[in-house]
Each structure stands twice: as C-alpha cells, then as structure tokens.
Design goal:
single chain, about 200 residues
C-alpha cells in the first residue's frame, strides 16, 4: 500500500498525524544539527577566553566572541556587556542570566516534539473510534452485512490511524528523551565553563 493511499484511507485524522510528524521531523533534524557539544562549547574558545581573562584583557575576549559566535562565546559576550562592576558575583550572575536566555533558544521546538509524542496516539485512538462509528453506521444502514466497500473503509481508518499514531509517537518519545539528555549535559558544561571563567578573571573578588 502506497504512502498516499494510506493517508487517504486513514481519513482526516491520518492527515493530522502526518502533519504533526512533518513538524516533529523538522525539529529532530534541527536538534541533530545544533545540539553538538563540541560546536556549542569549543575547547579552543574556552582556552583562549581563559587566557584573556587571566590577563584581564577583556577587549581581546570581546573580539574573539564576536568573531567565533559559538554558543559559549555569545553567552560570554552578553555577560561582559552586562557585567557592570567587575566582581566575581556580578560575572556569575550576568553569565547565569545570559546562559538561561540563550538556552531557551536551544530548547526551541522541544515542546512541539513532546506534544507530538503525547497527541499522536490519542489522534490514532480518535481515528479508531471514528472508523468504528463508520462501521456501525454501515451495518445499521445496510442490514446485517452492509456495503463491503464502506465496511472496508471503516476498518481501514480504524486500524491505520492507530498504526500511524504509534509510528509517529514512538520515535518522537525516543528523540525527545535523547535531546533532553543532551540539553542536560550542555547545561552542565555551560555552568562549569562559567564558574571556570569567573574564577580565572583577573581582578574579580
């Protein structure tokens, strides 16, 4: 059975599940490209920033952040801009605020993935119920046997929507959990980098 034929037989609920699957796939691809620790927190950038901070050379640190534009460098750039008095406490507070704001960008799309994982099976169940309603409608209107074609359509809708819902939901749950683990690891690494930078910033108390 071709994919388009499956969608046709699964009815409007099947199209809704397919639409959700397309959105979820876009989120998965985007997260696979962006949630890479080495790309977000390059060790070379951290090492250079530490050297500049030990020397108290904020100018070169700012230029590096503008040039590299990694996740870490953008956080540090925002932190320096909002630092105020150069104390360790101010740095850590500004770093935390900037990291939290930037981290929200990394989490973009995760609610959609979670919604897809939760809603797809429910839509599949809804399609099953609607298919059963069609079957009973045919039986009621067409005698004991009813129209074979209409019965077949109702059965197909009932079964296919359940299958589609599960086929979409299972990968969505798996990828959501994988990305959550990645985000937790990234958050821990960013926090560790912030503390390390603050402790090596010349002139901080």
């Amino acid at each position: 059975m071709e994919g388009f034929e499956v969608l046709q037989k699964s009815g409007i609920v099947g199209y809704a599940i397919f639409f959700l699957s397309v959105l979820a796939l876009a989120v998965v691809i985007e997260k696979l490209l962006t949630l890479r620790l080495k790309r977000l927190i390059p060790k070379e950038d951290l090492k250079l920033l530490l050297d500049f901070f030990r020397q108290g050379n904020l100018g070169d640190a700012v230029e590096l952040c503008k040039r590299r534009k990694s996740f870490l460098s953008l956080i540090v750039l925002d932190t320096i801009k909002n630092l105020g008095e150069p104390t360790k406490e101010n740095f850590l507070h500004a770093f935390e605020v900037s990291a939290r704001r930037r981290f929200m960008e990394l989490e973009r799309g995760m609610p959609l993935l979670a919604t897809t994982a939760a809603v797809s099976p429910l839509l599949g169940l809804l399609g099953t119920v609607l298919g059963m309603v069609k079957i009973f409608g045919v039986l009621t209107g067409g005698g004991a046997i009813g129209s074979p074609q209409e019965l077949s359509a109702g059965i197909a809708e009932a079964l296919l929507t359940t299958i589609l819902g599960l086929v979409v939901a299972i990968p969505a749950v798996v990828m959501y959990n994988i990305f959550n683990k990645k985000l937790d690891k990234i958050a821990a690494e960013v926090e560790a980098a912030g503390v390390l930078l603050a402790n090596n910033f010349k002139g901080l108390k």
